[in-house]
Amino acid sequence: MARRLPPLNSLRAFEAAARHESVSAAARELFVTHGAVSRHVAKLEEYLGTRLFVREGSHLKLTHDGEAYSAGLSQVFDQLHALTAVRVAGGKSDTLRIGCYPTFADKVLIPRLAQFRQVFPDIGFQIETSHNALDPHDLEVDVAIRLGTGDWPDLACHYLFDEELVPVGSPSLLCGRKLTDARDFEHLVLLHAQHRPNDWENWLRSAGLTQVDAHGGMRFDHSGMVYQAAINGLGVAMAQTAHVREELAQQRLVPFADSPMKTKRAYYLVHLPSRARDPVISAFVRWFTGELVAQRPPETSMRAPVT
Length: 307
Hints:
Elements: H1 8-20, H2 23-30, H3 34-48, E1 53-56, E2 59-62, H4 64-88, E3 95-100, H5 102-119, E4 124-129, E5 143-148, E6 156-169, H6 171-174, E7 190-193, H7 199-206, E8 218-220, H8 223-231, E9 236-240, H9 245-249, E10 254-255, E11 261-271, H10 279-295
Parallel strand pairs: 3-4, 3-5, 7-8, 7-9
Antiparallel strand pairs: 1-2, 5-11, 6-9, 6-10, 6-11
């Protein structure tokens, strides 16, 4: 007997709109127009004979039927994603594709992968990097590293560590001083990463140094370049503590403050909920989260009030 299926493009449009609770966001994801998504959703509603969305002001809200249909449809799409991902990878389900930020890959992930291979020698890796958060809903990655508050209801989130910022520079530049007064900045060059333009502004505000120009200085493409510039004495970098632990331990960089600023964000390892029992993903989640907990330094004076 032939399967009776609704229009597949309409299903894709509805699933994306329901997940984002936004027609515009769904249109951006699917690379179609706002009107195309609306027409597909209307066509699906006509096919099913029920309303799937109601509009509350400028926002979309799923109806009771819409919520039930969306939940089941998301599971089907997740299963289809997982099945297709294995085929795209050439049928090798033992290859884990990880999406993360470039500096996180360099400083946190890659230095630990050799240890993982010792425990799980049959699992291979493919690492995709981007300055923007990669999405496990795409076929390119199985798991991803995200920086934020963990509020991603369509993803399974595993906490890794908090984001902390501290100004650092070369020992020759430091000369025993701390950045506690605006005058301390008179002869210092601030180093910035293009994709993190507000780090200095946020730290200076938390330190009560709002009179300092937070956006002056030198700019580089990514944080790894900023840290190397600081090591070479070009200026002072605003570093994420997790990314410069080795440099601090070896005193290639030294902190210009007694305590880091703890932001409201943290790093998470995320994946599709439907793939929680995937043996490769579950093995990596258990190992990576455990590895970071085991290597987390004890609480020290390098703490600051949450901003």
